[in-house]
Design goal:
The protein is mainly alpha-helical. It is built from ten helices and two strands, in the order αααββααααααα.
């Protein structure tokens, strides 16, 4: 059974409905406190608590002083990913969980972008891959290369025409980057993971540049399958290192 929401929570939802109904956009001023009290038939304390809820969600921003008031605010993708990341923080999220979704979604993203990226976007992808054009010479460089290789996928997600697809893939790349760092999955260095991952990414760029939809889909599918196997093997080696006497 759905938990009963408090009065401020119900008012916060009503204010969101009002914003949509009135067609308000980012930066538009919300009605003042007295008008909200009259509109929703609620006491000052309830209205203020409802506004605090909306501010905490990033949907409202309040400014004081001349010209101040409460204004509609747009939640950034970065903030949304951070909030969603907090949700998973105390859950036992595994590499298998992440790659199960990546293997389904990323090939479709790659296929959707084939032949649709301009020269500047392709150059940005080339520039990311160029930052790890040699095997890491230290643990610190290995860590940086892992993060950079996932940045490649975050960049692809930013190019997505389907915003939901792009958000999900960008979120998975970010959370995988975080897992890699705090579980130290970059140690010991894994030259095979670097070499095969980079080769797939270079093949993918060429498929995207040439507009080869099926090639882009297949390269990304192979990339995700290989990365899943190598990363899960890397995780097992890290775990064994800590468990060995």
């Amino acid at each position: 059974m759905t938990p009963r929401r408090s009065r401020p929570q119900r008012v916060a939802e009503a204010i969101k409905d009002f914003v949509v109904t009135e067609g308000l956009r980012k930066g538009d001023r919300l009605p003042g406190e007295a008008e909200l009290m009259a509109r929703f038939g609620m006491a000052k304390g309830t209205i203020r608590e409802a506004m605090r809820i909306l501010e905490a969600q990033g949907l409202v921003r309040t400014r004081t002083g001349p010209g101040g008031g409460s204004f509609v605010h747009e939640v950034s993708a970065e903030r949304a990913r951070a909030l969603l990341g907090n949700y998973f923080y105390f859950r036992d999220l595994t590499l298998h969980d992440i790659y199960q979704l990546r293997r389904l979604l990323e090939p479709e993203l790659a296929a959707s972008l084939a032949g649709r990226l301009d020269a500047e976007q392709l150059a940005r992808l080339d520039a990311v891959v160029a930052t790890y054009d040699h095997p890491a010479a230290s643990v610190e460089e290995e860590r940086a290369q892992h993060v950079a290789s996932l940045r490649f996928h975050q960049l692809l997600s930013e190019f997505a025409e389907n915003e939901l697809l792009g958000f999900l893939i960008g979120f998975m790349a970010q959370i995988l980057s975080d897992l890699t760092i705090y579980r130290k999955l970059y140690e010991p260095p894994n030259v095979e993971l670097w070499a095969r991952g980079r080769a797939y990414q270079m093949q993918l760029i060429e498929a995207l540049r040439g507009g080869d939809v099926e090639r882009a889909r297949q390269v990304m599918a192979d990339h995700m399958a290989t990365a899943a196997s190598l990363m899960e093997g890397q995780e097992a080696r890290v775990l064994n290192r800590f468990l060995s006497p």
